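Hypothesis: this fold can be encoded by more than one sequence.
Test: take the structure tokens below, design a sequence, compare later.
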């Protein structure tokens, strides 16, 4: 009888711990879509990294830990960009081995390449611009209904030199396509990627403001 009670209590405790961890994980990924401060991003990234090390929700935690690092790279100084992107790339490499041919992974790989350009556009545009575009095209090919695939394509085109067909005139259709896809997009569950709509709206407005009057 005592043994049965012990097993029951242990099982209940484990269930409660898992439930709390699951709720915390969902709070972190929801925050990533709206968080603004670097300190908040670092807090979330540390929590997600802990989940990766413990192999909890491994695929999801690898994905969101990568996203958190890329968002930190955007907010960081140029001397830190490569470190954040390198960490994100390591997570994505492992995730790609677990879930190959995944549109969402190529979205983040494209995002990573695009962020690296900003460190020194004059020397990095050719290499990383081509890489960003390659992954954006792959993301669309793997899932033509993924709104983030069109968002990352829009970013790639927006930041490309005019002589390579870049700039607001050519990026506009991809931003509009992204927002069109967001209207019908539904994640499979509440831990699947669901970020980017606010980003697409902000960047579309910026894109339109740069078009000739």
């Amino acid at each position: 009888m005592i043994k049965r009670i012990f097993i029951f209590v242990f099982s209940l405790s484990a269930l409660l711990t898992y439930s709390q961890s699951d709720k915390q994980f969902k709070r972190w990924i929801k925050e990533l879509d709206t968080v603004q401060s670097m300190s908040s991003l670092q807090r979330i990234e540390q929590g997600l990294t802990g989940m990766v090390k413990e192999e909890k929700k491994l695929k999801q935690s690898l994905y969101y830990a990568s996203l958190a690092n890329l968002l930190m790279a955007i907010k960081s100084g140029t001397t830190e960009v490569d470190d954040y992107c390198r960490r994100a790339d390591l997570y994505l490499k492992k995730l790609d081995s677990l879930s190959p041919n995944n549109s969402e992974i190529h979205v983040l790989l494209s995002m990573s390449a695009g962020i690296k350009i900003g460190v020194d556009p004059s020397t990095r545009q050719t290499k990383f611009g081509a890489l960003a575009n390659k992954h954006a095209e792959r993301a669309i090919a793997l899932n033509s209904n993924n709104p983030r695939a069109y968002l990352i394509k829009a970013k790639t085109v927006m930041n490309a030199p005019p002589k390579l067909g870049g700039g607001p005139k050519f990026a506009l259709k991809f931003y509009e396509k992204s927002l069109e896809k967001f209207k019908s997009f539904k994640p499979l569950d509440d831990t699947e990627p669901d970020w980017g709509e606010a980003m697409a709206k902000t960047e579309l407005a910026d894109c339109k403001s740069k078009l000739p009057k």
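The chain has a mean pLDDT of 90. The longest helix spans residues 2-31.
Hypothesis status: open.
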